[in-house]
Amino acid sequence: MAQMIGETVSDSPTSGLFKSILKHEVQKALGCTEPGAVAFAAAIAAQVLKDGGKFSPDNIEKVWVTVCPGVMKNGAAVTLPGTEGQGIGLPLAAALGVLAANPDGLNTLQGVDAKAREQAACLVCQNHVGLSSTEGSEFFIEVKLEMKNGVTSEVQITGGHTHVASVKKNEKDVPWNSISENGNGTSTDVPLSDLSYRERLRKCSFEDLIAMAGELSIKDARYVKLGVDMNLRLAKVGLEMGRPAVASLQKMVIHNVSAPSLETNIKLMVAAATSARMGGADVPAMSSGGSGNQGVDTTLPPYLFGKDKNIPEDRILKSIALAHIINAYCKAFFGDLAPACGCAVSAGLGATAAIAYQINPTLEAVTCAIQNLTAMIAGMLCDGASEGCAAKVVVAADAILWAGCAAGYGDNLSGGAAGIVGKTAEETIKNLNRVIQGMLPLDPEINDVIRMNAGNVHRACFKRPPLSAMAQLSTFEV
User: Fold this and answer.
1) pLDDT at 385
2) 79 to each of 35, 52, 123, 194, how far by Cα in Å?
3) What is the reported pLDDT for 51?
């Protein structure tokens, strides 16, 4: 008999764990989160040295940016918010962050004005910003700021997009608390620097994860719903922008290739939200696992499915909480950035489990959904944040819906343990992790291909330079 998942007692081993996930991984994020994290680190470095007012670019000697291959890849070609659809590149993100000197997590680039854009572009074009990559695969961002008077600051972010690991002024440690009080609107006693929740997650069973979603408090349910509303608003903006992924789906309906349906609507909405982010829209997403696109993936397919099928609101929100939890669980194994597309292999697993949970809230159905999606699209490659992400999210959403519905209605598409699909959800994730760890050497190769394909986009600043001085763009070591 299928095991029904109900409420768990407050003293369960997972007590407080969901709040830690919300605190660290489900945050408001403006634009692609890798350039956003670089801007955040740069803004902290500037704030440490700030002595009244904003920085003048004339006082900056050098901004040194060092990132892991995954951050390099995702920051190579994506459009930055606050640049009117024209600014790209990690050097520009760092320069904008330094000039803002107002660290606000993944929203640091909010409110960038025309003057800051031109000043930042000048810094990049005049060789005041350097960019290099580490060899390791662990999430890493370091920004070193050197002023002309010799004063320096250094900021390191590790283990997550807003996890500030180290802040120094003139090579001496200084205290930093990057998110004061309840930065994401939730209540938690876990300090930002504490990533021990990931070790707790790795020890959880899927039964624990489902029970954790069943414990969703009223306050946390409101926060989950806030994220849904935020991503729906982003999708509305994306529909108005009409970028290629959205336009192509609409044309398929017009030309009777596809028909208006729940499936088509889900694909259209995720395409709109993702393409808006990749296109530099100044509208935030609610992220999941440190990614705005994954936030779109974990929220919109389950929510739109549930509303269409008249699923009770509380079960819909619990299912989306489960999606966030499973995404975080996968990241605890796979790492924050991986060569595999996170919208398919982590957020996708969470979203398809959420749909199965809405239909049939049992461990068996959720396990089957994990097996189904793994059998479908586990090998989807991440080749960096770009317009193509919208197409990947559409493919993932299609598979999410099919895998989740099949599982909810009792159909195991993989036939059980086969290929990398394990006998259980836990075994399947561990098998998938082995494959992903084996793929890690791909990121440096992907970065080389990106650089050759786009004419060294890592040095890029603006697609259309706002100043004549920008004709000579800097070249950075990568």
Assistant:
1) 85
2) 9, 31, 18, 31
3) 62
Query: In terms of domains, do 218 and 315 share one?
Result: yes
Helix, strand, or coil (residue 381): strand
**What tokens appear for 195 in the block?**
């990533």
The 10s digit of each residue's pLDDT in 230-255 is: 999 999 999 999 899 999 999 999 99
Same domain for 112 and 211? no
Per DSSP, the three-state class of 144 is strand
Largest CA distance in the chain: 73
* Three-state secondary structure call for residue 385: coil
Best CA proximity match to 208, nearest among 299, 328, 123: 328
> What CA–CA distance (Å, rounded) separates 158 from 299?
26
| Residue among 20, 74, 34 nearest 329 (CA) | 20
Residue 146 CA, distance from chain mean position: 30
H or E, element range at 28: strand 28-29
**For residue 423, what is the DSSP state?**
S
Residues of the chain with confidence (pLDDT) below 70: 1-13, 15, 51-55, 84-86, 177-194, 454-478
pLDDT in tens, 363-420: 999 999 999 999 999 889 888 888 889 999 999 999 999 999 999 999 999 888 899 9
Class of residue 417 by CB neighbours under 10 A (exposed 0-12, middle 13-18, buried 19+) = middle
- Residue (of 453, 449, 458) closest to 478 by Cα position: 458
Strand partners, 168: 154, 173
Same domain, 171 and 248: no
The answer to whether residues 401 and 287 belong to one domain is yes
- pTM for the model stands at 0.87
Q: 206-214 vs 313-334: helix axis angle to the nearest 10?
A: 140
Q: Please state the domain count of the chain.
A: 2
Name the one residue in this structure whose structure tokens are 């966030």: 324
In this predicted structure, what is the pLDDT of residue 12? 59
Give the separation between CA 417 and CA 269, rounded to whole angstroms. Answer: 33
128 shares its domain with 223: no
Per-residue confidence (pLDDT) for residue 54, from 0 to 100: 55
Chain CA centroid to CA 478, Å: 23
> Domain range for residue 143?
31-182+445-471
